[in-house]
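Encode chain A's predicted structure.
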Amino acid sequence: MTDLFTPIRIGQLELPNRIAMASMSRTRADEEGVMGNLNAEYYAQRAGAGLIVSEAAWISEQGRGLAHSPGIASREHVAGWKLVVDAVHARGGKIFCQLWHCGRVSAPHLLGAMDPVAPSPIAALGRIMTPEGFRNFPVPVMLEKSGIEKIISDFSQAAENAMAAGFDGVEIQAGGGFLIDQFLQTGSNTRRDEYGGMSMNRCRLLFETTRAVGEVCGLERVGVKLTPSNRDFGMIDADPQIVFSTAVSGLNEIGIGYLHMIEPLENDLKEGDVLKDTAQRFRQRFKGTLIAGGGFDLEKANMLLENEGADMVSFGRLFIANPDLPERFAKKSRLNEADPATWYSEGKEGYTDYPSLEPHPYLRLIEE
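Encoded structure for chain A:
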């Protein structure tokens, strides 16, 4: 019987369990987006996961959308991430870098006074903190073909940077209401060119980016994250079943290492939601490794794996408060509860100070 502790192979990577740590922004990079020793300690504590997916790293200054989020666009970024990767590898862990472009979910103060870009000039819903206080998201600039080509090139360069930092692979953030997701869905993409209209056109940026990144890393080291039920920032599509079926089928043909699909949380479900049980709904369209995430606990995760609804399960918030989550699952131990007030704060509190069942023998690997 397959469960969370059954080993699995992704490409040439042998993983000891099927527990993935999902990407989670923690805003502990410096002002330039460079990671350091504290970040290395945080990720090393969680190296018991079969696979860690790093917090989202912006691929260029244009792609930035959150203060104190890390980048993967410069030599300094590479050096900072190398501290993290080396610490994870020292504990026998595997880690992928999530590549991120925020698109319209940003504002000029984060972009060196540049305007955010998007497939169409439609503002994201919601508000963003600026030096003048909370403001509505601005109307983004519609990308021209040359701008799209530059973004694909930036993803490719970011993948090259990630490999230089020693990552085991990369995950393309194609969900969450960010740039690639904005191209996928009709609520944010009203283009009339080859990147808009029919579902295959709206998937074009996703496919072109995936192929370009695969040329750098090797496709077996590329994962893609999709969030079909996400409604953050005003995301909506006229027929999500069609566009995400097109996306999943296309990624299957390209031959990526894994597909990471996020389920809707129970309190986000609406009556008749066509995207309930997301991973299982698209399981037949994707023949590679499928990772499901979104509100799972130990029992639900094992049930999904036993029923072959997915190959791995990702956990986010549980990993915040439980650095040794796999060990706690194995022993069916009590879980720590996370403090939301410290999710996006500064320093060690709520970051590296959650207790493990056993003292961390590796903490002295990292110099203060």
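The chain has a mean pLDDT of 93.
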